[in-house]
From TrEMBL:
PANTHER family referenced in this protein's UniProt entry, alphabetically: OXYSTEROL-BINDING PROTEIN-RELATED, OXYSTEROL-BINDING PROTEIN-RELATED PROTEIN 3
GO (cellular component) term, any one: cytosol
Region (Disordered): 1-21
Name by which UniProt lists this protein: Oxysterol-binding protein
SUPFAM superfamilies: Oxysterol-binding protein-like (SSF144000)
Origin superkingdom: Eukaryota
Naturally occurring in which organism (per UniProt): Callipepla squamata (Scaled quail)
GO molecular function, one term: cholesterol binding
Signal peptide: none
Amino acid sequence: VSDDDSYVSDISDNVSEDNLSNDIENERQTLDCISESRIGCQSKRRTCLPASCPNTSNISLWNILRNNIGKDLSKVAMPVELNEPLNTLQRLCEELEYSELLDKAAHTPNPFERMVYIAAFAVSAYASSYYRAGSKPFNPVLGETYECIREDKGFQFFAEQAKYWNPNAHEIEGSVMDKTGNVVHRLFGKWHESLYCGTTSSSNCIWRANPMPKDYEQWYGFTQFALELNELDLQTRSLLPSTDTRFRPDQRFLEEGNIEAAEMQKQRIEQLQRERRKVLEENNLEHQPRFFRKSKDDSWVSNGTYMDLRKEPGFSKLDNPVLW
């Protein structure tokens, strides 16, 4: 939700592979010409902000939304207390906090180990959001810029707010480059529709989103795949353990439109969960998964019993915990 239209960058429709290569090369030359002497020595970084965050307990987001029903929410001004003192351009830079993982990947000759570090870097970008769900960054205005030169981390980051929000907001583009920086493949498309590899005049469709089901607006915006996940037919019912999510009553009542019953069941199930946790803690016990085990590298893997039990069927013979 924004009070201006500038929070989504536009991507040009007419970027050729040659131009993309030239842009990348020009950017590399620009970065290379920034000498260490110009960057300067690393200074001591602050460890706190000038003031603590404000108390937002008296702000009701629901009241704000209710008072603006029918309006374009991108035009609705939100109280500044709902913002954090960072900009979206800075939040983009924040994804480089663990850039050393990319350094490790670049110096790892084994391609499989290299992907391990790349995957870790992709996950690391989420870490900073764990305690920040209650606030949003400021939206950059047109022409706003940000730089972050971190000689201690070995990267130089530049960002600029790259138009206003327009119908092309869903467009994405990227490139696969070799070690010398030459573009090998170019990717482009829309993240909610399809992704192509090649040029605008000659390309292959790599992925295309499935069509949405009829009247999807009425069904929580679910895709066809999502619509099928909670389906429970008679043939399947007899094969499932009683712990399967499809038997959970609060979820089932909500699907059926019985909001009151869903709320009652949700509270009851949550209380059961609290009681189970209390019993485990009081007896110094730890819940033991039934169908998974820890491997030598401390990751969870299947213990190979689930599908065997399903064949008999044998779930009815198990002493299942009361989850709901």
